[in-house]
Amino acid sequence: MHLTKALKEHADDKYPFHMPGHKRRLFADEILSDAYSIDITEIEGFDDLHEADGLIRKAQERAAKLYGADETHFLVNGSTGGILAAICGTVSKTDSIIVAANCHRSVYNAAMLSGAGLYIVAPRQEKSFCLCAGIDPERIENALSETSDEAGAVVITSPTYEGIVSDIRSIADICHRHGAVLIVDSAHGAHFGFSGAFPESPVALGADVVISGVHKTMPAMTQTALIHISRDCPSAGRIRAMLKVFTTSSPSYVLMASIDSMTDLIKEQKDELFEAYAKRLKSFYDKTSALNNLKVLKKEDLTEKGTWDHDIGKIVIKDDSMRLSGKELSDILYDKYGICAEMAGVSYVILMTSVADTDEGFAKLEDALAAIDEDLQSRPGSDRKTPVPEEAILPEGRYDNKMMAAMFEADAGTVPLEKACGMIARDLVTVYPPGIPVTLPGSVITDRAVRSLQNAQQCGLKITGMTGKEIAVLWERSST
């Protein structure tokens, strides 16, 4: 029996003398009634995510079959939980871990928790949109050669938030030749592999561990994700153990049912759903190619070594005339046209799409972009320009991971951002989303880092790791 069906039958038939306290009947808003009615705990007959051998195990096996994975586990605290478990289950303080510089902050947190030596590989920059390119396999080869027998794992993000895809097959071959485990944060690629219109899934390309955030690009609830583990992964057992460490002991059955429901939907309607999705996207790119000022990112705009492919489902748009920042474009879409973008950067916006989008939704977006473009075209020339985005300030080479961990215990104070150049950063500072570090704990704050953060502040973007306009820095006791 499927998890969703079992939950529905239980809700209709059994009185709950068990957690949770709402007893599937007392809730403040009618809109939540269906979710409350199937919100249970680990009672008889409903299995246990941490020792799955019944309903949940079968649901995970269905997900593994859908994705072509050897082994799949449900994640109910997002991709972050899978990343923490994969890294801490693979490397320890006697190892080194090679990390792509543009990885999510959770990767750096996991590296710090593991105690492994950190070696950072920076991607090149795609000049047309000032975003990170894919990871060049040659740079992974060089990093593995430099770390010799120390490297236990390589972690890269593919696709990136903007849909940039790396050459996973080549990177996997390099990792395996050096005896390293390849962990791919594919949180934004859960829809890969179901249609020729999209890149192949890292699961099929030789990655040892793949984390897929199904709530990001698939019809599943927020906080749901999957971790796929290859049968050849040497750290599979420790990763399973770490999943118990980094996952709540009270996993949500509502969230697990959402994953199981998504699995069934794609299994039954994959061809129909993805054919319609690809058709909508093709029509969108065709119609927006004639815009005069707004520019929509296409694969041909990506020319840097390391960029292998691009996910057309990630719509990235900028004002090529530089009169609108990404935040301003996002605000216009929201305030005037009722369209909520996923993310606004200094110069561009990202709109996330999925099989759940509609023809009407795409038509609304196309009309809005055409109107904004026409308005820009009719404006007189203006000297006002948006801030020029800085290339990502990404570290590279060996990094003192112990120093990064020590920063959390060090005496620190805050200084205005404009006075921080040359000081030692106390915290991991990111523009969020996407959560790529601008400074790492223990790193020297550069002039470029300051300018990048000031640009983000000027554009009204959210910054984590700072207090208002002040940044935490190492504070010498003698100066207080």
Q: What structural keywords apply?
A:
single chain; 480 residues; alpha+beta; Aspartate Aminotransferase, domain 2; Aspartate Aminotransferase, domain 1; Ornithine Decarboxylase, Chain A, domain 4; 3 domains; 8-stranded mixed sheet; 22 strands; globular; disordered C terminus
Structure description:
- This protein has helices spanning 3-13, 33-37, 55-67, 78-88, 105-114, 137-147, 168-177, 214-217, 236-245, 253-288, 326-337, 359-378, 401-406, 447-458, and strands spanning 71-75, 96-100, 117-121, 125-126, 131-132, 151-157, 164-165, 181-185, 209-212, 225-229, 294-296, 309-310, 314-319, 343-344, 348-352, 397-399, 412-416, 429-431, 436-439, 463-464, 466-467, 470-474.
- It is α+β, with helices and mostly antiparallel strands and 480 residues long.
- It folds into three domains: 3-265, Aspartate Aminotransferase, domain 2, CATH 3.40.640.10; 270-378, Aspartate Aminotransferase, domain 1, CATH 3.90.1150.150; 400-479, Ornithine Decarboxylase, Chain A, domain 4 (Alpha-Beta Complex).
- A hairpin with a 4-residue loop joins strand 18 and strand 19 (436-439).
- Helix 10 packs across helix 12.
- The termini are far apart.
